Amino acid sequence: MSHNVDNNNSNPDQDQYGVLLYYKYATIPDLGSLLAFYESNCNSLGLLGRVRLAPHGVNVTVGGELSSLESHIDAAKAICLFEGTDFKLASSHHPLNDKVAHECGFTSLSVRIVKLGLVSLSVLQELVTLSSHPLLNPPDISNAGRHLSAIEFHSLLQSAGKLLDEESPTDDKELVLLDARNLYETRIGKFHTPSVETLDPSIRQYSDLPSWIDENSEQLRGKHILMYCTGGIRCEMASAYVKSKGAGFENVFQLYGGIQRYLEQYPDGGFFKGKNFVFDHRISVGSSDENILGSCFLCGSSFDDYSSRCRCTHCRMLVLVCDSCLMEGSVYVCELCQKHSKGVGSLPSTEDGKIEVALPRFELKTVNSDSSVSPQPTWRHGTEYPRKLRILCLHGFRQNASGFKGRTASLAKKLKNIAELVFIDAPHELPFIYQPSNASSPLKSCPPTLPENCRKKYAWLVAPDSSRSIKIDWKKADGPFDPLQYQQQTVGFDVSLSFLKTVCSQQGPFDGILGFSQGAAMAASICALRERLKGELDFRFGVLCSGYALPSKEFQPGSINCPSLHIFGSDLGKDRQIANQASRDLAMAFENGCSAIIEHDSGHIIPTRSPYIDEIKGFLQRFL
C-alpha cells in the first residue's frame, strides 16, 4: 500500500529516511497487548524513537527507512483502534549529530506505558496531562474544539468575517488566533494575518497553558477562537479546556493536523511565517518562504537554528544563539528567567573550566538543603543537569530555619536529585519559655542561662497577647503544655505574608511551598490566596505537613484550587501537636481531585521511610 509522503528534502540519497508522527485519543482496554505490538513491530522494522501508551491514548514519534515506516502504518491500520488516525509521514535527513539524536530520542526505541494524560509536552514527547494541576482530572476530550482542515483554516483567515457555516464568525473583531505551543517554538514561527489577532502565551511548557487561559480569559470570552499547534495533539486537550469554561467559550476551532498539515497544503507558508518547530531530529520544518522570524538571543540578528541545543542554565529551555555569538562553555539565561531576576546574558567560563552563574546578593537569611552549594549550582561545561524543583520551606511554631533543616535532613537527602529545599526564619521572634520549679526556693523559679550557641526561635503567627518586644529572652510559661495552643495563634499573618513576598522577589522563583505544623497553616493560607497573589507569590504546588486551617472564610470545603500534598499522622499516629481531624479538615478545603493525602504512624514528623517517601517523590515528580 502506498502512502502520501511529505518530501521536504531535495537530496535523493537521504529521501529514503523518514519520520512518522501520529496520536490517537481512545480508551485502550488492553495496554499490554498494544505494548507487545509496538515492541515487536518497531524492533523488527528497525524503527527508533518514542511510543507512549496510556489508558486513554497513544502518542508515537518514530524514525527509520521510509519503506519500514510505511509497513508500520499498514500494520497499525489493521488495528481497529487506529481507524481514522492521521498518520503524518515525512521524508527527512538523518540526525545532524549525536547530541541532537540523543536529545530527540532517536538513538534507541523507547516504548512505555505511562499513567498520565496524552500530549506532546517537551522534547521527550511524553504522555502527560494538560493541566498545571497534575492531580486534577483532564478536560473531557469529547468536548474538544471543532476540527478545521488546512483549507478551511486558511480560508477563514483569508476572508475573516465571512461565513464558513452557521457556527462561523460573522465579525472580524470577534476572531482570534491562539497558539498552543511553547515560547521556544513560537520564537521561530507563527501564524500572522493583519485581520486577525494572534495570541502567543509565551509559556515555558505546555502544562502552563491552562493558567494562562485562566488569567487571560477575558481576551477569549465571546470570541471565535482558532487554535493551532505543531501536529494537532495539544489542541485536542487545550480546546476542550477552553470550552470547559462555559458560557462565552463555546466557539472554539482547531487546525486539524496542525501546522504540519497546513504547510503540506500551502508549501509557500500561507499565513504561517517562519519555521515549524518539531520534536524530532529535524528540529524545524520550513516552507519555500526563506524569511527568518527568529533572532539571536544575544545580538538580535535574524536566526532560527536550534541545532546547537543551547539552553537556559536555570530552566533548561532552548535559546537561540547564532554561530557568531556561540562560545564554548557559555551560560545563558532565557527571557522568562530574566523576568524573575535570575541573571542576564552569557558568562564566559573561568580558567578552571567552571561556569559561575551570576545571582543577586540577598540580604535575607536563608538556609539551603545542601549547604555545600550556592543557591544555584556551579555548572561544568559539557554536563547538562536537569533543573531541580525549588521548594520554599516554612518551619513550625517556635522553630527556626536551621533547626528545621536539621529535622528534615533525611528528607532533603532522599529528594536531592529532584528538589532543592530552601529554609527561612519566620519574621516573628519569640522569647524562650521556661517552666518554673515547684520548689519553695525563689532561685528555682529564675530562668536558666542561655547557652552561647542557642538559636532564636520564630513564628509565622502569634497569640494576640504576645509581647511585641524582641528584647525579652525568657518568658515564664502560663501553664503546662497545651496541645491546642495553635488555635490561639492568629495574629501576625499580614506581616508574614509581606515578608514572604519579599523572599520570593529576592530569591524566587519557587516551584512549590512546603510547610510544617504552623508553617503548613501559613502555606495553606497562601494556597487559598493563590490567584490574588499572582506576580508576588507564584508557585505551582503546596506540601502541607501536620497542617491545620486558620479560622478564615477562605477555608470552606472544596474552595481552594491548588495542587497539594497533605502529610499527617493517622488516628494511631499519636501526633500530640496537631490532631488527625484538623489536618484532614484542611485537606477537605481543597477542590476535589486537587489534593493527595499521605497518612502515617510516626507522630509529629515528616516521614522518610518507604512507602511514604516514594509517595512524596511521586507527587513532586509530576512537576518536573
Please supply descriptive tags for the structure shown above.
624 residues; 7-stranded mixed sheet; 5-stranded mixed sheet; 27 strands; globular; Rhodanese_C; zinc-finger
Question: What about the largest sheet?
Answer: 7 strands, mixed
State the secondary-structure class: alpha/beta
Mean pLDDT score: 78
Q: Helicity, in percent?
A: 10-25%
Global geometry: globular
- Counting DSSP H or I runs of 4 or more residues, the number of helices is 16
Uncertain regions: pLDDT < 50 for 5+ in a row? 8-15, 116-129, 163-173, 344-366, 370-385, 439-444, 467-472
Oligomer: single chain
Radius of gyration, whole Å: 28 Å
Tally the beta strands: 27
Distance between the termini: 42 Å
What topology, given as strand order, has the largest sheet?
16-19-18-24-25-26-27
Protein name: Rhodanese domain-containing protein
GO molecular function, one term: zinc ion binding
Domain Rhodanese: 171-271
Keywords: Metal-binding, Zinc, Zinc-finger
Structure report:
With 624 residues, this protein is an alpha/beta fold. 22% of the residues lie in helices and 19% in strands. It contains 16 helices and 27 strands. Strands 16-19-18-24-25-26-27 form a 7-stranded mixed beta sheet, with helices on both faces. It has a 5-stranded mixed beta sheet with strand order 4-1-3-2-5. It is globular and about 75 Å long. About 13% of the residues have low confidence. InterPro entries: AB_hydrolase_fold, FSH-like_dom, Rhodanese-like_dom, Rhodanese-like_dom_sf, Rhodanese_C, TrhO, TRHO_N, Znf_FYVE_PHD. GO terms for molecular function: zinc ion binding. Keywords: Metal-binding, Zinc, Zinc-finger.
